[in-house]
Amino acid sequence: MARINTNYDKLAAGYLFPEIARRTNAFLEKNSGAQVLRLGIGDTTEPIVPAVLDGLHAGVDALGKTESYSGYGPSEGINSLREGLASLYAERGLTLDPSEFFVSDGAKSDSANIQGIFSDDCVVAVQDPAYPVYVDSNVISGRTGKAYDNGYEGLVYMPCTEENGFFPDIPDRKVDLIYICSPNNPTGAVATKEQLKTFVDYANQNKAIIFYDSAYASFITDPELPRSIYEVDGAENCAIEFNSFSKTAGFTGVRLAWTIVPKACVTEDSEPGKLHALWTRRQNTFFNGAANIVQAGGVAALSPEGRKQTDEQVSFYLENARIINEGLKSLDITTYGGGNAPYVWLKTPGELSSWDFFDKLLNECHVVGTPGSGFGPAGEGFFRLSAFGHRENVEKAVFSIQESLKI
Ligand SMILES: *Cc1c(COP(=O)(O)O)cnc(C)c1O
Q1: What is the residue extent of each domain of the chain?
Q2: 91-104: burial string, b at 16+ Cβ within 10 Å, e else
Q3: Chunked in runs of 10, what are the mean pLDDT values of the chain (407 residues)?
Q4: Whose CA is nearest to atom 14 of ligand 1?
Q5: Span from the CA of 54 to the centroid of ligand 1 (angstroms)
Q6: Cis peptide bond prior to 183, omega within 30° of 0
């Protein structure tokens, strides 16, 4: 008799983005002809840059010739890409071996799958608010109890608030697996080296593991801020890092990412190399590698010309963030983020709830954003605006907010 995984029933109903779509569609039905400006979902909008397109084309062409055709590749990724990634980190003074890089088709799936190589009874800590996959993947695997009003039983929430600059204090109890995202989705906050050091020290003392999501690292413009957790001493012993070409190179639909599992990374019950071996085994068993065409695009994105062009695109999105920030500040709305991240995190005016502000912004300004409460209890009273978008749309949305928001 087959039975289902009932942990799925614990997932809080009404996932954030379907609910946004439902309310937006209801608005459009009532207001036919209205143009809705979307600063909601974090998805890239600008075309892939020429140097990277050339790489993708070359990847396609290689498949059309006997001499260069390739079928299954190594599930950890082609060597030239792993080497290119290791060189990227070497520029920041980091010594990571290419074999410590696991190329994949997404940081989302890797950040969801990584917990599978750890024991079921590990206690999980998440930043609150957080990218939803960290929580949901652990609910599904049974590491939490039921959902209650303010989150899941058994999950340790680390509030990120105005008071702590949106970076949490270390947990006040012993936890085993810790998710940190920097630059943060949704708050746009970037952890300093000193802040990360508190967690690295905690993890090494408690033999905990940090899952560090740095999908937005390329948006960091401040040279003092770390782009990788391995810039902090001791992190190679306790941290696994995720990154992706999605936001940097416009690969959200193309799919290419990487995960770093240093051989030095250890748990209480394992020797150096064991976690690396487990992730190798996991990927070889469940995954047959990222598309070869796409990996050719990734190699091109790491070339000097690819870097220059993708950096320009990242700057373009950061300029959008600046425009959004300026517009909101002119209305005396308190905002955070946006300087080193493609997200602006605003405090809802008049202490409105996140969803009430969503409805207000949609009805009065025809702008769609993302309610902060959808990312966790501490997101209540905040709201995320995404800087991904065509300039014209971003300007229209900001103008509409300035003209029509009644505060
Ligand atoms: C967009 C995003 C990613 C990227 O995920 P991919 O699966 O590589 O597209 C990872 N983490 C966060 C927090 C993100 O917002």
Answers
A1: 12-47+307-404, 52-304
A2: eeebebebebbbbb
A3: 96 81 96 93 95 98 98 97 98 97 98 98 98 96 92 96 98 97 98 98 98 98 97 98 98 98 97 98 98 98 98 98 98 97 98 98 98 95 98 98 96
A4: 215
A5: 24
A6: yes
Residue type, 16: L
pLDDT of the residue at 220: 98
pLDDT attached to residue 14: 59
CA of 60 to the centre of ligand 1 (A): 25
Please give the Cα distance from 51 to 58 (Å, whole number): 11
Strand, helix or coil for residue 29: helix
Ligand 1: residues within 6 Å at CB?
Answer: 42, 106-108, 131, 181, 185, 213, 215, 244, 246-247, 252, 257
315 backbone dihedrals φ, ψ, rounded to 5°: -60, -35
> According to the 3-state scheme, what is the secondary structure of 133-178?
HHHHHHHHCCCCCCEECCEECCCEEEECCCCCCCCCCCCCCCCCEE
Going from the Cα of 131 to the center of ligand 1, the distance in angstroms, rounded, reads: 9
Domain 12-47+307-404: assigned CATH number: 3.90.1150.10
Cross-strand pairs, 27: none
Phi-psi region of 195 (alpha: psi -120 to 50; beta: other; left: phi over 0): alpha
pLDDT of residue 200: 98
| Domain 52-304 = CATH 3.40.640.10 | yes
Mutational test site, ligand 1, from 103, 108, 388, max ligand atoms within 8 Å of CB: 108
CA-CA distance, 238 to 243, in Å (whole number)?
17
DSSP collapsed to 3 states, 258-285: EEECCCCCCCCCCCCCHHHHHHHHHHHH
- What does the pLDDT read at residue 150? 83
How many whole angstroms from its chain centre is CA 264?
24
